[in-house]
Amino acid sequence: MRRLQLAAGQRLTEALLERSGGIDAAATEVAAAIIADVKQRGDAALRDYTKRFDGADITDLRVSEAEIAAAFAAVDDQLIAALTACADRIEDFHKRQLQQSWYVAPRDGVFLGQQVTPLSRVGIYVPGGRADYPSTVLMNVIPARVARVAEIAVVVPPAACGTIVPSTLVACSLAGATEIYKVGGAQAIAALAYGTDSIPAVDKITGPGNAYVAAAKKLVQGTVGIDMIAGPSEVLVLADKTANPRYVAIDLMAQAEHDPLAACYLVTTDASLPDKVAAELEVLLRQSPRADITAASLQDNGIVLVCETMEDAIAASNFIAPEHLEVLTADPQSLLEDISNAGAIFLGSWTPESVGDYSAGPNHTLPTGGTARFSSPLRVDDFLKVSSVLSYTADALQAEADDVCTIADAEQLWAHAEAVRLRIADLEKREQK
Question: 222 — alpha (psi -120 to 50), left (phi > 0) or beta?
Answer without folding.
Answer: left
